Amino acid sequence: MRLTERFGLRPGADRFPSPHSAADLNNVWLMTSEYGRTVNPTVVYVARACLDALMGWVGVDGMVAAIRNPALLAAIDQHAAAVRDELGERITDAPALAEHARQVHAAAVAEGHEFPNPARLDWAHAPSYLVRLVAVCALAGVADCL
């Protein structure tokens, strides 16, 4: 079994991997950190892989478009502020960021949104769920979660 299959990493816009797909594995790597949080290295690895896939899917194209479009940059900044408010202290945790992105993606799928090719998208009129995903990518980059 390939590593990507084992951890649920499947390419495609409609198959964004769950950052907790590795949580079902039987492993004994759980340990308590000095900060009182439980850390599972496998979950962190999968979350970073999810964020990296997200960056490749929409993050790079969205951020390049934002450099050219101040209104888009402002929208990404507003979405990033909303994510920071929602996640609080967990803003630097790869699993928390990946889970937020997964929830945004799942909500968009549930509402029946089509996922356009980001390379061909008119980012000036990008749907808010894609702008939110780009904001998650920006936060992941700042938090060194990629």
From TrEMBL:
<dbReference type="Pfam" id="PF19939">
    <property type="entry name" value="DUF6401"/>
</dbReference>
<protein>
    <submittedName>
        <fullName>Uncharacterized protein</fullName>
    </submittedName>
</protein>
<dbReference type="InterPro" id="IPR045647">
    <property type="entry name" value="DUF6401"/>
</dbReference>
